[in-house]
Amino acid sequence: MSKKDHTIVVRKKRKGKHGGHHGGSWKIAYADFMTAMMAFFLVMWLLSTASPEARVQIAEYFKMPLSVALSSGDKSSMSDSVIPGGGDDMTKREGEVFRQLPNNLDHNKNKADQNLQALRQKLQSLIQQDPRLSNFQSNLRLSLSENGLLVQITDSRDRPMFKVGSREPEPYMRAILEALAPALNELPNRITLTGHTDSLPYAGGDAAYGNWELSADRANASRRALIMGGLSASKFLRIIGMSDSVSINNSGHDNPLNRRITILVHSKEKQQEILDQESILTTMPASPEKEELRSQLTMTPSVANPQGQPVNASGKTEPQRVNSGHY
Description:
There is one protein chain. With 327 residues, the chain is α+β, with helices and mostly antiparallel strands. The protein contains eleven helices and seven strands. It has helices spanning 25-49, 52-61, 65-70, 102-105, 107-129, 131-134, 171-184, 211-228, 268-277, 280-283, 288-297, and strands spanning 140-145, 148-154, 191-196, 236-241, 260-266, 303-304, 310-311. Helix 7 (171-184) packs across helix 8. The longest helix is centred in the N-terminal third of the chain and has 25 residues, at 25-49.
């Protein structure tokens, strides 16, 4: 065999670049991940801006087709039963029972909010027109929240609603409350009446008659004035004395805005929440331990002896509270 019959094969090894063994697959996976994240955030944004009715329709789209087929409807929300026709009448074959949508469920709440809105507008108009209120527009504040309609009657330096240290309202304060009473009486919503004072201390200190008693006494005096103006006594849900524990905008201890009476016309939801919280005695199960606790929580009203002094259940005379006045 000659040299020309031999074939020479030369093999050359190429060194791959750094990372070449990965290829470009990671880029595809990363692009898929970013696309999924963009779609997710787009869906979240759409849901946050969609109305309750639109969200229900979106949910219907993702419901199982089986439930739709069994209910013989084009939407699972159109029937409250898997039996064709739905409803209480099992023999019914045509038509379905319409399930309430969120707008139907919220109808009563919206109506209640509209009632409070209407009351606010009426009070604003009353403040403008009634001379008993128009002279005190700077002392009257109205605000609407999820808890209800709040009416605040604040003091001013030149014309306080109560004299310093006194529990009895001034004549013009009585006139304000009597003017508000008829409008507050129109709605069935119940009321919480709260008294607030400034931080000026009493001479006897916290152990004697102080701002806690004064705020509660002023709230009760305002309650009596509202009743004199025609407000039903059954409208009151709570009478509260807050002393100086809640100040307005962290104002000074002698700021007249802190000396105020607030009237909160409760929304139905807040009213029911308060009633549920206060129903511990009626829902407490019977047991010896619970009966002892029930007797401790139950308040016994005091009565008066022939001399007119209040006595407790044991017949002992209760101490009289003396108003020492502010410093």
